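Retro notes, item 3 of 5
We never archived the inputs for the guanosine-5'-triphosphate complex last cycle. Fixing that now. Sequence and ligand:
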Amino acid sequence: MAATEIARQSGEGARAVPLSGHVGFDSMPDQLVNKSVNHGFCFNILCVGETGLGKSTLMDTLFNTKFEGEPTQHNQPGVQLKSNTYELQESNVRLKLTIVNTVGFGDQINKEDSYKSIVEFIDTQFEAYLQEELKIKRTLHSYHDSRIHACLYFIAPTGHSLKSLDLVTMKKLDSKVNIIPVIAKSDAISKSELAKFKIKITSELVSNGVQIYQFPTDDETVAEINSTMNGHLPFAVVGSTEEVKIGNKMVKARQYPWGTVQVENENHCDFVKLREMLIRVNMEDLREQTHTRHYELYRRCKLEEMGFKDTDPDSKPFSLQETYEAKRNEFMGELQKKEEEMRQMFVQRVKEKEAELKEAEKELHEKFDRLKKLHQDEKKKLEDKKKALDDELNIFKQKKTAAELLQSQAQQAGSSTTLKRDKERKNNPWLCTE
Ligand SMILES: Nc1nc2c(ncn2[C@@H]2O[C@H](COP(=O)(O)OP(=O)(O)OP(=O)(O)O)[C@@H](O)[C@H]2O)c(=O)[nH]1
Ligand SMILES: [Mg+2]
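Structure as it came back at the time:
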């Protein structure tokens, strides 16, 4: 059926109108493609897995390149996240690829908090996007979206069951990111063990309520392949950047004394399935799910935490502006209340301080009076003592004068006697002297 012959009903009440000639809006999909190609794409992968599980090798194998990446030591005090962004180009399509790796995951003795830094990292990227969205002047078009679109969770090829660290971490992450579990270094497990291991992992994930990413089956063009692939999860992968000649072809493989594991051979491992699902079929769905499901949940919780709601208590719609005004009024009311409380507290403190100062002043006055009285008493005592001493001095002086008088009288008396004796001696030289 020609596109111009049919007009689709675009909404309730819209009338279907047949077109009598070519208008041109059938080029809309092409316009969209051109625009997207010009703008380029961005895809962010988070690799969570224990140190040395082959995370970097798998990324190199997936994107057919050598990303820089140093092996990590097992002595990290905590889990850190390391992010690297690369500009890739295939044909005329540009891809800004960010690979985030966990560093030191599973290396601590106490692994209780291992998931925290990963959750924090994912939330930080959501928060940055939310802040950009909430800006008055938004630049979302040129904004580097760092939200994680896919989380490859590397499971150690133990062949037993999931470790509690894996279960706890995946449970904490499943509402924040699209988790695609992979069995790392799957060349280390035999075929029969691998089948059992996959069943065990799936049943453990289900029984612990861990939601892993399901390839979408609502688009009929990919529904079949996606539903088949959902049945193959978790993918058992092998990574290698080493090229080996098989027949007359160079293929990526891992060589062992007993044989060669070909990375892209579907009989050897699920690497091709992973590449197909992650990059070739569902990259856009992963991006979309990140935005519409995980980011939306983060945004909703965050805005609700800030007090924003879509409905009022009577379930009537509530606009953002009304919520803002209600919040603002509530805030202003609280501010006034706080101000009043502070004012009251200030007055109370001033009164208390005043009373304290008055009390101190009174005490000082009392002390001053006491000291003054003490001083007066002391002064009086000294004056009395001085008076007594003066009296004593006067008496002494009187006595002295009297004594001096007596002495002078005695001297006078003494000298007249001597004169008399001298006279008598003159008259009578036979008188002997004493
Ligand atoms: N048997 C096997 N070995 C692998 C596989 N992938 C990688 N390796 C080897 O495992 C070792 C560690 O690989 P990396 O890719 O550095 O592991 P990683 O997880 O990035 O390590 P860190 O970044 O240090 O945590 C290297 O010697 C790889 O050659 C695999 O699929 N099977
Ligand atoms: Mg690495």
